[in-house]
Amino acid sequence: MPASFLDDLKDRVRHNPGDHELALMVGDRTLVLGEDYRVAPSRFCADLDGLTGSVELV
Q1: pLDDT value, residue 11
Q2: Is the four-CA dihedral 48, 34, 24, 5 of positive or negative sign?
Q3: 20-32 per-position pLDDT tens digit
């Protein structure tokens, strides 16, 4: 995963605000991000296509 992954993810979150939680699965851990990282799922999912790294929507 590139070093810019988290910055790229933050940028996409900032451009797709909403009311759904965002969680990152890292290995066998799930990190649920806080209120500042809530997204609008349909717009956010479409925006993830350009994100470099391993992304799986659950």
Answers
A1: 92
A2: positive
A3: 998 888 889 999 9
Question: Is pLDDT of 12 > 70?
Answer: yes
46 Rama sector, left if φ>0, alpha if ψ -120 to 50, beta otherwise: alpha
CB 39 within 8 A of CB 13: yes
pTM for the predicted model, two decimal places: 0.73
Task: Tell which phi-psi region holds residue 43, choosing left (phi > 0), alpha (psi between -120 and 50) or beta.
Answer: alpha
Least Cα distance to 48 among 15, 2, 19 occurs for 15
Residue 21 CB neighbour total at 10 angstroms: 12
> Comparing C-alpha atoms, which of 56, 55, 23, 50 is closest to residue 39?
23
Q: Determine the longest span between alpha carbons in the chain, in angstroms.
A: 28
